[in-house]
């Protein structure tokens, strides 16, 4: 029997005794009021059918209680449901273990939704049941994807790679460089060179805030990555002092060609694509 209690200054006062019916009705109201879909299944029955569902599950899926009770929950699955997730749930249920998955499910009207699902075994009076809680995270997921697409767009804007003539691509770096940005630059420039059959890549660093701690040797890594693909790297917008430091800092075997302007680099490429460290 559940009791409503009130605690005042450490003293617990019993207010009222609740009947089993009131208790059940209150619990049901609580579960129905929850934003999370809840179902209970009975593995003692063939194919582990649903024996209880709350109102949210009904609203989330579009089915009536009569249509879902007595069925295995797999009716929510469809062509977009990942086989690995189904396998994961099957295994966890067989082992009576808790499992959390985010699966693509389908409502009665066939519209898809992303279901963040928690399945948990419970033992009540010696009997095993499974409780499943379902949260529709479609909106969060689409917002997250929009943010990611946006970030990708911002990244592209921060690293605008352009083909200025056949076989030649340039990227003008603006702002400050950090390791993350350098890694992105390396990946993007290699991807671009491969896609567009670029033989000469120019990185212009005129707009870059260059502090002494900036590891110039990172360019050597880009040079190496491009070299493997048969492309050459030129760094422009570099002051003679920075170029000197660059030569000293970097592996002397590397042959990154440096110029003061993009124009000079282009002239050099037009006349002679071969060359060592060079400042003009
Ligand atoms: C309590 C419980 C809730 C479940 N809820 C869902 C659900 O919301 N969506 C879903 O795709 N599968 C759900 N499942 C999983 C399926 O019912 C089934 O166990 C799964 O598809 C793996 O078994 P199968 O390979 O026999 O289909 C749930 C299972 C249990 C036990």
TrEMBL record:
Residues 23-96 form the PAS domain. InterPro entries: PAC (IPR001610), PAS (IPR000014), PAS-like_dom_sf (IPR035965), STAS_dom (IPR002645), STAS_dom_sf (IPR036513). Coiled coil: none annotated. The keyword Ribonucleoprotein does not apply. The keyword Flavoprotein applies. Keywords: Chromophore, Flavoprotein, FMN. Residues 158-269 form the STAS domain. Pfam families: PAS_9 (PF13426), STAS (PF01740). SUPFAM superfamilies: PYP-like sensor domain (PAS domain), SpoIIaa-like. PANTHER family: PROTEIN TWIN LOV 1. NCBIfam families: sensory_box (TIGR00229). This is Biphenyl 2,3-dioxygenase.
């Amino acid at each position: 029997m559940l009791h409503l209690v009130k605690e005042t200054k450490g003293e617990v006062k019993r207010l009222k005794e609740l009947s089993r019916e009131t208790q059940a009705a209150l619990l049901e109201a609580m579960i129905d009021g929850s934003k999370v879909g809840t179902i209970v299944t009975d593995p003692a029955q063939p194919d582990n059918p649903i024996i209880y569902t709350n109102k949210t599950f009904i609203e989330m899926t579009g089915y009536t209680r009569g249509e879902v009770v007595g069925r295995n929950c797999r009716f929510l699955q469809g062509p977009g449901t990942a086989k690995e997730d189904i396998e994961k749930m099957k295994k966890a249920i067989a082992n009576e273990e808790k499992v959390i998955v985010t699966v693509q499910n389908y409502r009665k009207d066939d519209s898809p939704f992303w279901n963040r699902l928690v399945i948990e075994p419970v033992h009540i009076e010696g009997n095993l049941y499974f409780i499943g809680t379902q949260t529709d995270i479609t909106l969060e997921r689409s917002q997250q994807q929009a943010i990611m697409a946006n970030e990708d767009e911002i990244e592209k804007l921060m690293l605008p790679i352009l083909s200025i003539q056949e076989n030649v691509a340039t990227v003008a770096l603006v702002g400050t460089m950090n390791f993350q940005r350098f890694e992105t630059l390396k990946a993007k420039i290699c991807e671009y060179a491969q896609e567009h059959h670029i033989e000469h890549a120019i990185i212009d660093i005129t707009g870059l805030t260059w502090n002494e701690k900036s590891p110039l040797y990172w360019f050597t890594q880009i040079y190496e990555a491009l070299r493997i693909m048969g492309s050459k790297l030129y760094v422009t917008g570099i002051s003679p002092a920075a170029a000197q430091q660059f030569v000293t800092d970097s592996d002397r075997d590397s042959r990154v060609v440096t110029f003061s302007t993009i124009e000079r680099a282009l002239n050099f490429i037009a006349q002679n694509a071969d060359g060592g460290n060079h400042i003009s």
